[in-house]
Amino acid sequence: MPLGLANFLGRPAFILSCEPDRATRVNTFIDVTFLIHRATDIMSVAESETRRFAAQDSLHRMTRKFCELRKEKDQLKVVKVLGLKESMFFWEQDFLATATWLTHFDELQQLPLNVKMQILKVGWVLWGRLEKLAKTADYRRKKQFGSDCFMIGDDACLDIQDFEVDISWCTNYTKEQLV
Fold this sequence. Notes:
The protein is mainly alpha-helical. The chain has one domain. The chain is 50% helix and 7% strand. Strands 1-4-3 form a 3-stranded mixed beta sheet. A two-stranded parallel ribbon has the order 2-5. A hairpin with a 4-residue loop joins β3 and β4 (156-159). α2 runs parallel beside α5 (84-102).
């Protein structure tokens, strides 16, 4: 087994960049205030959208909205470089899609806005990941993807054999040190 920094120190690779005793040149500040404001707007004015499906129960509305959000794109982009800009774009897509999807859950609509936002902040990563895995499975079932391709955005995928990761925005370590 190759001895990487994570094995040597006994800590997961991406926690290594959090060593307090190492001076760091990388101090990336990501302001997501605009994202919180957009999600707040979505969750605040969502009642008019949910009335469109008023004849159905919450589960049917959520399923229907999930299908709308998952509509296949005509053209998929293949991501070759995954850095800060791309990561932020995909995080934004997932966060706002999750906010939109959650608005079709009647019981959630009855909660105060701050509780809705807490639920969104906790669940968006999980929901987004599960949704991308479901899309990947659909494309594989239709034989449009090989086993090395994965969905990472609404209309973007990556081939794990042919892409580059730029981690310079979040750590001083090289990729070789993190493996």
